[in-house]
Amino acid sequence: MAVGPFSIRRIDHIKVSVPDRYEAAAWYHEVFGLRILRGPIWDAAAASPGGPLFLGVDDALDGTKVVLFEGEPLGKHRPIGLTRAAFSVDGESFLRFLDRLDELSLVNEEGVRMTRGHLVDQWIAWSLYFNDPYGNRYELLTYEYEAVKRQVQPTTPS
After folding, report:
1. CA atoms of 44 and 125, how far apart (whole Å)
2. How far apart are the first and last CA of the chain?
3. Which three-class secondary structure state does DSSP give residue 21?
4. How far apart are CA 149 and CA 4, in angstroms?
């Protein structure tokens, strides 16, 4: 019997080390809109000392999640291996995120506060690179390039 090719379906979760899971969960909720997942399996996991505390957009098992463990943040070390998690959003959500930069007070790897001036034009996507308060690195991006371009780069009259 021939076996079909192996294929990954999706990324299930990223593991993030933080000094305090619940303090970090508040930041992830404010910035990404993630919330602590509730229900028998999520509550049992969270009851384990030090983690895992699952965050997501809903309680579904098949959604992408951020999992917080108490420990020394890897972002405090020289980057090796995986160095950044990237989250993709639609163009409208990306623009709303840009509008919230002042209130979010995000900083990049150098500790510089993020502004619209840090927006990166990838030619196929728009990206922002920033850290959580513990040095863990993130990218927020949208592939709705043209829709965002019209809003962030005013056209010049001919």
Report:
1. 39
2. 65
3. helix
4. 42
Contacts of 26 (CB under 8 A, 6+ apart): none
Q: Read off the tokens for 90.
A: 């639609």
* pLDDT values of the chain reduced to their tens digit, one per residue, 158 residues: 667 787 777 788 899 999 999 999 999 999 999 999 999 989 999 999 888 999 998 766 777 899 999 988 766 566 555 578 999 999 999 999 999 999 999 999 889 999 999 999 999 999 999 999 998 999 999 999 999 999 987 555 54
Q: What tokens does 116 get?
A: 């619209």
Structural domains for the chain: 12-74 (3.30.720.120), 93-158 (no CATH)
Q: 153: helix, coil or strand?
A: coil
